[in-house]
Queue: 2 jobs
Job 1
Amino acid sequence: MYLHAPLPELCKAGVVSNHGADFKLTVDDVPVPKPGPGQLLIKLNVTGLCYSDIHYMLEDLPLPRMGDHGVRSPGHEGAGIVVAVGSDVVGWKVGDRAGVAPTWDTCTYQEYIVSPARYTSRIPDGVDDFSAGPIMCSGSTMSRAASGPFQFNRDTIR
Ligand SMILES: [Zn+2]
């Protein structure tokens, strides 16, 4: 693992308690995670609020619970800067700008997060974090739908 500067031991996170209709989200101090093999440690500047996060807190859909994956904080999109690189990561370095897309065990209501390098997106120059962060879920979904093998036919979109 390569570190650019000393990292704090703790960081702020939005932590859910009392899941369900009366869920509660509080700001707590949590340990700064350490990147494992193939992972990046990212200091987030921006996170998004997707309605899926509300569903995870409400537990109103027949989906696995956040806690089933060891997740205490919701959130699955954001933008920031790489502050540490785990072993076996190729092509990323400390200081790179990074966008986080949805994965089961990434919680972006936290200052420092680990993200699998292979699922982390580069943020190009000229795109600020406040524009990039919130579109990592919704924007990437629409981009993939419009450019992939399931390309929409303009005539069928109303
Ligand atoms: Zn989403």
Job 2
Amino acid sequence: MLFYSPCTIFVKDCKNSLREGIHGMLKYQIPTWMQKCYKGVTWRKNTNRKVIYLTFDDGCVPEVTPQVLTILRDKGVKATFFCVGDNVRKYPELFEQIKAEGHRVGNHTHNHLKGINTPLKMYLDNVAEANQLIGSTLFRPPYGKMTFQQKRKLQREYEIVMWDILTNDFDAATSTTELIQQTKRHTRNGSVIVFHDSLKAAERMLHTLPTLIDWWEEQGYAFETL
Ligand SMILES: [Zn+2]
């Protein structure tokens, strides 16, 4: 998931000229006024409780997902995994393990398609193909990119979940120190936080996840599934 992708959606649909100015702001968190441009989508849970929602995109993969499950098990944390259908097809036992350990799963298309480059029917068919394996009412578009037509169709069947905080764990240019600082800075009640159980993100994600979980617990946050 590219950190500038939501910028592409919103700026295209709100105002093209704002793109450069808001680029930095968008790296970790989409401003509330921009989130409202995209109605009916979950960015963050509206709650007064100290609760946050950890999510992991792009799995399940045997090199990374089991390590995430071990960390979450050791820390007593439940999370939501937005899986790629083709990975579920390849690693069905790992997918079953995610569910057996009490985590929730969501649909992230079958082939990690970029919505804005994909015709409507092809996109919807790909989501449906994934859901034959995943069986979830949650959907998150890869790269945060989908057309409004795709969104409207999918909203009939799914809760579409974006994010409140993107950790940028996939981005080699992001240091673990920055990732931790910025994620702490943006955490608030109801935050939906995105990590990736992918090869690309593994090093930064596995390094920062335990530290952040400890910090969130110190701050009094509870962890729930979506
Ligand atoms: Zn993704």
